[in-house]
Design a protein that fits this description.
By secondary structure, the protein is mainly β. It has one helix at about 75-90; strands at about 5-10, 15-20, 25, 30, 35-40, 45-50, 55-60, 65-70, 70-75. The strands form three sheets. Strands 1-6-3-4 form a four-stranded antiparallel β-sheet, with no helix packed on it.
Length: about 110
Protein backbone atom coordinates (compact mmCIF):
# COMPACT_ATOMS: atom_id res chain seq x y z
CA UNK A 1 0.00 0.00 0.00
CA UNK A 2 1.08 3.56 -0.66
CA UNK A 3 3.11 4.91 2.25
CA UNK A 4 3.97 1.53 3.74
CA UNK A 5 7.55 1.01 4.90
CA UNK A 6 9.60 -2.18 5.00
CA UNK A 7 12.86 -2.38 6.96
CA UNK A 8 15.23 -4.46 4.83
CA UNK A 9 17.01 -7.32 6.60
CA UNK A 10 20.78 -6.81 6.73
CA UNK A 11 21.99 -10.37 7.35
CA UNK A 12 23.15 -10.82 3.74
CA UNK A 13 26.24 -8.99 2.44
CA UNK A 14 24.82 -8.88 -1.11
CA UNK A 15 21.26 -7.55 -1.39
CA UNK A 16 18.93 -6.20 -4.04
CA UNK A 17 15.30 -5.24 -4.58
CA UNK A 18 13.51 -5.96 -7.87
CA UNK A 19 10.46 -3.77 -8.41
CA UNK A 20 7.74 -5.82 -10.13
CA UNK A 21 5.06 -3.14 -10.09
CA UNK A 22 4.56 0.34 -8.69
CA UNK A 23 7.17 2.71 -7.34
CA UNK A 24 9.34 2.41 -4.25
CA UNK A 25 11.73 4.76 -2.50
CA UNK A 26 15.14 3.97 -1.07
CA UNK A 27 17.70 6.48 0.26
CA UNK A 28 15.69 9.41 -1.12
CA UNK A 29 15.40 8.06 -4.69
CA UNK A 30 12.39 6.56 -6.47
CA UNK A 31 12.50 3.32 -8.49
CA UNK A 32 9.79 2.05 -10.82
CA UNK A 33 8.67 -1.28 -12.20
CA UNK A 34 11.33 -3.30 -13.99
CA UNK A 35 14.17 -1.85 -11.92
CA UNK A 36 16.73 -3.91 -10.01
CA UNK A 37 18.28 -1.89 -7.18
CA UNK A 38 21.52 -3.03 -5.53
CA UNK A 39 21.33 -2.30 -1.81
CA UNK A 40 24.46 -1.36 0.15
CA UNK A 41 25.20 -3.14 3.44
CA UNK A 42 23.59 -1.71 6.55
CA UNK A 43 20.13 -0.96 7.84
CA UNK A 44 17.71 0.79 5.50
CA UNK A 45 14.00 1.04 4.85
CA UNK A 46 12.11 0.59 1.59
CA UNK A 47 9.09 2.88 1.16
CA UNK A 48 6.09 2.33 -1.10
CA UNK A 49 5.61 5.52 -3.12
CA UNK A 50 2.60 3.87 -4.76
CA UNK A 51 1.00 0.45 -4.50
CA UNK A 52 3.99 -1.81 -5.23
CA UNK A 53 5.12 -5.41 -5.53
CA UNK A 54 8.80 -6.23 -5.00
CA UNK A 55 11.14 -9.20 -4.72
CA UNK A 56 13.87 -9.09 -2.08
CA UNK A 57 17.13 -10.83 -2.99
CA UNK A 58 20.09 -11.57 -0.74
CA UNK A 59 22.99 -13.90 -0.22
CA UNK A 60 26.74 -14.30 -0.25
CA UNK A 61 28.71 -12.53 -2.98
CA UNK A 62 30.02 -14.74 -5.77
CA UNK A 63 33.63 -15.86 -5.28
CA UNK A 64 34.84 -14.88 -8.75
CA UNK A 65 34.05 -11.89 -10.98
CA UNK A 66 31.25 -12.01 -13.55
CA UNK A 67 31.45 -10.80 -17.13
CA UNK A 68 28.46 -9.37 -18.99
CA UNK A 69 27.68 -8.96 -22.67
CA UNK A 70 24.19 -8.02 -23.82
CA UNK A 71 21.81 -10.45 -21.97
CA UNK A 72 24.54 -12.94 -21.08
CA UNK A 73 26.43 -13.17 -17.79
CA UNK A 74 29.23 -15.69 -17.27
CA UNK A 75 32.26 -16.48 -15.16
CA UNK A 76 34.63 -16.22 -18.15
CA UNK A 77 34.90 -14.37 -21.45
CA UNK A 78 35.20 -17.75 -23.22
CA UNK A 79 31.74 -18.72 -21.95
CA UNK A 80 30.38 -15.39 -23.19
CA UNK A 81 31.92 -16.01 -26.62
CA UNK A 82 30.26 -19.45 -26.77
CA UNK A 83 26.89 -18.07 -25.65
CA UNK A 84 27.05 -15.34 -28.29
CA UNK A 85 27.96 -17.84 -31.02
CA UNK A 86 25.14 -20.18 -29.92
CA UNK A 87 22.62 -17.33 -29.91
CA UNK A 88 23.64 -16.11 -33.36
CA UNK A 89 23.47 -19.71 -34.70
CA UNK A 90 19.98 -20.27 -33.22
CA UNK A 91 21.09 -23.05 -30.86
CA UNK A 92 19.16 -21.76 -27.84
CA UNK A 93 15.82 -23.52 -27.31
CA UNK A 94 12.70 -21.54 -28.14
CA UNK A 95 10.41 -20.43 -25.34
CA UNK A 96 7.24 -22.56 -25.46
CA UNK A 97 4.17 -20.70 -26.78
CA UNK A 98 6.22 -17.61 -27.72
CA UNK A 99 5.10 -16.65 -31.23
CA UNK A 100 7.75 -13.96 -31.66
CA UNK A 101 11.02 -14.30 -33.51
CA UNK A 102 14.25 -14.40 -31.48
CA UNK A 103 15.65 -10.97 -30.67
CA UNK A 104 18.76 -10.27 -32.75
CA UNK A 105 21.93 -9.68 -30.79
CA UNK A 106 23.32 -6.17 -31.27
Amino acid sequence: CDGEQLPLPDEHPARAVYVIAGTVGLHGRGFGAGTLVAVAPGLCTLSALSRAHVVLLGGQPLAEPRHMRWNFVASSVDLLDRAEADWRAGRFPRIPHDPGAPIPMP
